Amino acid sequence: MALNTVNDPHLQLVTDDPMDLERLQKIAKQTFTETFGADNDPADLKEFLDTNYSINQLRDEINAVDSRTYFYNLNGQIAGYLKLNWDSSQTEPDYPEAMEIQRIYVLQRFQKLHIGGRLMKTALEVADELHKPAVWLGVWENNDNAQGFYHHYGFERVGEHTFVVGTDRQTDYLLMKKLA
C-alpha cells in the first residue's frame, strides 16, 4: 500500500480539487454536528465549524506534506472520512514518533455498517507503512461510544488536553495504541 493509494476500493484520497474540498467541508460539518451538536451551544458550534472547516483551512490541511485525508464511499455516497497526521502535521507535540488520527467520522445513517472499523484498519496500515511505533488520538471525555470503539482497537488513555469549541473549553482524553 502506498500512502496515496489504499487497499479498500471504498476509500478515496481527498485532494485540493474544489469539488473534493466542498465535499469534505460538507461531511466534516455534518458529522461534527451530528456527533456534538446537541451538547454544544449553537453559537459556539457555528464558530467552531466556520473556523475549523473553512475551505481555506481544509485546503491547508490537505496540502500538508505529513497528512492524508480519505473519503469512505458507499453506494456512490460519502459515508465517512479519516484524517491522519504525522511528523510536522500533528496537532500535539508530545508524541513526535507516533501518528495521529485527527478525525475519524461516519455519518449517522451509515453507522453500524463497520465503516469505522475499515477506517481504523486503514489508519493502522498507514502507521505501519510509515514505521510508526504508535498511533494516538483525542476523544471527548463524554463521548462514551467513541471511547468504547477505540478501546476495542487497543487504545489506552495516556493523558488529556483542552479542546475548544467556540468559547467552550472541553476536555479530550488522549488515547494511544502501541504498534511496536
Determine the N-to-C terminus distance: 19 Å
For the secondary structure, the number of strands is: 7
Q: Over all CA atoms, what is the radius of gyration?
A: 15 Å
Residue runs with pLDDT of under 50 for 5 or more positions:
none
What letter string, H or E per element, gives the SSE order? EHHHEEEHEHEE
Record the strand order, biggest sheet. Answer: 1-2-3-4-5-7-6
Main beta-sheet strand count, sense and barrel state: 7 strands, mixed
Number of helices: 5
Structural class of the secondary structure composition? alpha+beta
Described by the principal axes of the CA atoms, the overall outline is globular
The percentage of residues in β strands lies in 25-35%
| Helix fraction bin | 25-40%
Mean pLDDT over the full residue set:
94
Please describe what this structure looks like.
This protein has 180 residues and is of the alpha+beta class. It is built from five helices and seven strands, in the order E-H-H-H-E-E-E-H-E-H-E-E. The protein has helices at 18-36, 42-52, 55-62, 115-129, 144-152, and strands spanning 11-13, 67-74, 77-86, 99-106, 134-140, 156-165, 168-178. A seven-stranded mixed beta sheet has the order 1-2-3-4-5-7-6, with helices on both faces. The longest helix has 19 residues, at 18-36.
